[in-house]
Specification:
It is globular and about 80 Å long. The two termini are about 55 Å apart. The protein is built from 17 helices and 38 strands. Helix 10 packs across helix 11. The chain has about 800 residues and is of the alpha+beta class.
């Protein structure tokens, strides 16, 4: 129900209280998806919380770190200030187990098949062993003329003698492989497949077959164009290699842009293969491993992709396949060791790592960004598979920052930057300046086939939110230099679009939900993203020493921008969706997106504003929303909603929406769901977006937890551990050399600081400020704690 509209401005400070008692963390879930029992993690000196038992050697968390105290203190073992290889590959504990063939194999959305990828090529495995299909896709395989993502190619394997075989497949996320076991008539075939993780140019897809039970089986492999792709295709052979060329458009260029063309080539290693009649045939003998190696390259990978892909596999031997797997596994191991979390709820922990695995499968530096469904496209994708800017495109990339996988967001920027001239032209047609982004974009020249604007103006501000976060979490001036022209154009749009009414700036005619008709004034989400955009432009222009005159204009708009609208609903003051126009909506999470991801309300905000935000979360309660969960859960954590309820609801949402392949699927979209669990847990364990480090900011103090090298705003990597409601230590590694402001996790106690292994004295107070230089490592605990004791608590 609606009530009288009021307005409230943004700011200031609040803290969380902790309670005693301890829920212990299960050290070795053994692949279980359960919630964990009452066991313990951690060893060494546990300080005030008492001792705890470390996982035994051989588990993902087992064993002491090599290099001892010096390595832990001295910083870089991985080329930076993070602990890198010192952390466990916690993902090794988790696998997806599929006991039946997938059913979602002809959908425009998310498949339930076993999934592989290297950030460029994605593979989904369909069918049973007698008729196994590898669906192959690349992120760049768009039809520029149709302005949509197209299905690319399939590799089909026929082993008729194994008809009726049993089925069991496992997606092993810790090593990036899918294995299978299939038995029929006394024979068993085991398979192991991967997409070469350390090479996203030549893109080798490898499946290794091993037969037991005696005798042999004959295999036939063929290549076919993806479903719904009617463009010209041709197959051929080169010696014992089968190949097929596919394309996404009829012409080689469109609007000055190269259209997408791909060659897939397949060759068997470990036995003799023969190509005839568009088929590659070979025999698997019992006890002798055989590998089918497939290369996937496009004209964007190399101008001579057709020749390169053939030469890349033409002379491979069994030893090469072994070397490929070693390098592939090393890539995934290093990936998961960049950071870690360990919490009691193993359903959530499993999905945390699964989400990062899947995000790494679809996104890679230097490759085209994934659309709505990633690189597992089976037919023409729903909603064109495009870059939808009113949350879907941005959402998965947010998870890259707090989890310390910033590189996974590198692919995001190019489509947004490339679109600037189009956005400028669209602004000019409407009489505005700067860059005005419509809802749906895509690769040049045409973008997405959906050209509707939906009466929304905020999409440009939403689009640059990922870039602003990227800069905020890294403070990388080189990165700021690359993105600043785009940030400036969006800020310039808002400089011109906002209207001065009295003493404030007003945002008119900007629909919060697609198609809301005017008047729609001062939408709460839009106000959040405009604030974020203006502040980002101010911060970057200041850091780069550019555009001081424009900066003054942006600051004027930011300082005098209308406050977030509020009204009374169910006896509480909550945010109104607009000041004039829509007041509420029962679906989606637009009403909290100024909290997250726009970062305008948090535990450090004005207490009155924080109270309104908390009431908003409680009344919206979008725990099961098809569009909203990806931002709703992190927003709830940011404002200190009951952490027990967040974890309970998150566990239930995971259980109710996760396919056997660990891909969460909801009605609103596909890979956007990769954000929900990692970002929620990261925000619960560590908050920093308001310029201060808050340890276990919205975490149940009865639940033991630990994390290593989560990334914080300001370019810091932070590690800590909670046992029995007591924080054991804080480790902060500085990448940017900015001062650290730590909200004292030991209220009322003196704090001992060690900088680069040396005693840097004691501090006290509610907040502790410590200067840093680039590469400095701080270890912090209560006064009286020795450096050696901190190292013991920190060891894994």
């Amino acid at each position: 129900m609606s009530g009288k509209v009021s307005l409230i401005a943004v700011l200031a400070l609040s803290t969380l209280t902790a309670c005693a008692g301890a829920r212990k963390i299960g050290s070795a879930p053994g692949g279980s998806a359960g919630n964990g029992g009452t066991t313990t993690i951690g060893s060494g000196s546990a300080g005030a919380a008492g001792a705890a038992v470390e996982p035994t050697e051989g588990t993902a968390g087992g064993g002491a770190p090599e290099g001892g105290v010096g390595a832990l203190d001295g910083g870089a073992t991985d080329g930076g200030v993070g602990l890198g290889s010192m952390w466990p590959n916690q993902a090794l504990l988790y696998k997806a187990t599929l006991a039946a063939p997938p059913k979602q194999t002809n959908t425009g959305q998310t498949t339930d098949a076993p999934l592989l990828g290297n950030g460029d090529v994605g593979v989904a495995i369909f069918g049973t062993i007698d008729a196994l299909t590898l669906n192959l896709h690349k992120n760049e395989f768009w039809s520029l003329s149709e302005a949509k993502v197209k299905a690319m190619e399939k590799l089909a394997l026929a082993i008729p003698s194994m008809a009726g075989a049993s089925y069991a497949m496992t997606e092993d996320i810790g090593v990036g492989e899918v294995t299978g076991t299939f038995t029929a008539g006394g024979k068993t075939i085991t398979t192991k497949s991967w997409v070469q993780a350390d090479d996203s140019t030549q893109n080798k897809v490898i499946t290794q077959f091993t037969l037991t039970g005696g005798g042999s089986v004959d295999v036939s492999a063929s290549l076919s164009v993806g479903q719904g792709n009617s463009y010209a295709t041709a197959s051929g052979s080169s010696g014992d290699t089968l190949y097929r060329d596919v394309r996404a458009d009829s012409a080689d260029t469109l609007g000055g842009q190269p259209t997408r063309r791909v060659r897939v080539a397949a060759r068997v290693v470990g036995t003799t293969g023969t190509v005839a009649g568009d088929r590659l045939t070979f025999t698997i003998a019992s006890g002798t491993p055989v590998s089918l190696v497939t290369g996937v390259m496009s004209n964007l990978d190399s101008a001579t992709y057709q020749d390169v892909v053939l030469s890349s596999i033409s002379k491979l031997a069994a030893a090469d396949v072994t070397a490929f797997e070693t390098a592939h596994r090393a890539w995934w191991d290093a990936f998961f060791r960049k950071s870690f979390i360990e919490i009691p709820d193993k359903t959530i922990e499993k999905q945390y790592y699964a989400s990062l695995y899947l995000l790494a499968c679809v996104s890679r530096t230097g490759e085209q960004a994934p659309g709505l469904w990633g690189n597992w496209v089976m037919r023409d994708a729903d909603w064109n598979g495009d870059y939808t800017l009113n949350y879907n495109y941005e959402a998965p990339f947010y998870a890259a920052f707090p989890t310390n996988h910033v590189e996974l967001a590198d692919s995001y920027d190019k489509p947004v930057i490339d679109w600037v001239p189009t956005a400028q032209a669209q602004a000019m047609r409407n009489g505005w300046t700067g860059a005005y982004y419509r809802v749906h974009i895509g690769p040049l020249p045409n973008g997405s086939g959906d050209t509707n604007e939906w009466n929304q103006k905020f999409n440009g501000a939403f689009a640059i939110s990922v870039m602003i976060m990227h800069y905020d979490y890294t403070r990388d001036l080189g990165y700021a230099t690359r993105i600043y022209p785009t940030i400036k154009q969006v800020a310039t749009f808002w400089q011109s679009y906002l209207v001065k009414v009295g003493t404030r700036y007003v945002l008119n005619n900007d629909a919060q939900h697609e198609g809301d008709q005017n008047p729609q004034m001062n939408g709460v989400m839009s106000l959040g993203f405009v604030r974020m955009a203006l502040q980002g432009a101010i911060d970057m222009s200041t850091a780069l020493g550019m555009d001081s005159d424009a900066r003054a204009q942006w600051q004027d708009r930011l300082t005098n921008l209308s406050a977030f609208p509020t009204f009374s609903r169910n006896g509480q003051t909550v945010f109104r969706y607009t000041e004039v126009g829509r007041d509420w909506n029962p679906g989606n999470a637009i009403g909290i997106q100024h909290i997250y991801p726009a970062s305008q309300v948090g535990l450090g905000s004005d207490p009155a504003l924080l109270t309104i935000a908390q009431a908003m979360v409680s009344q919206m309660a979008r725990w099961r929303d098809g569009n909203g969960t990806v931002t709703f859960y992190p927003a709830a954590a940011r404002v200190g909603h009951d952490p027990k309820e967040i974890l309970t609801q998150l566990d239930g949402w995971i259980t109710g929406n996760t396919y056997p392949n660990l891909h969460i699927h909801t009605g609103g979209g596909g890979i956007e769901n990769f954000n929900t669990v990692p970002s929620t847990i990261a925000e619960m364990l560590l908050q920093s977006f308001q310029g201060k480090l808050r340890l276990f900011a919205d975490w149940p103090m009865t639940d033991d937890a630990r994390f290593g090298d989560l990334r914080a705003s300001g370019g810091f990597l932070v590690s800590s551990r909670l046992i029995g409601g007591v924080v054991q230590y804080v480790r902060v590694a500085s990448e940017s050399g900015e001062p650290v402001v730590l909200v004292n996790p030991w209220s009322g106690k003196m704090v001992r600081v060690y900088k680069n292994g040396q005693d840097a004295g004691v501090q006290s107070g509610a907040e502790i400020t410590i200067s840093t230089a680039k590469g400095d490592v701080l270890n912090i605990a209560t006064d009286g704690t020795s450096f050696a004791d901190i190292m013991s608590r920190l060891s894994i």
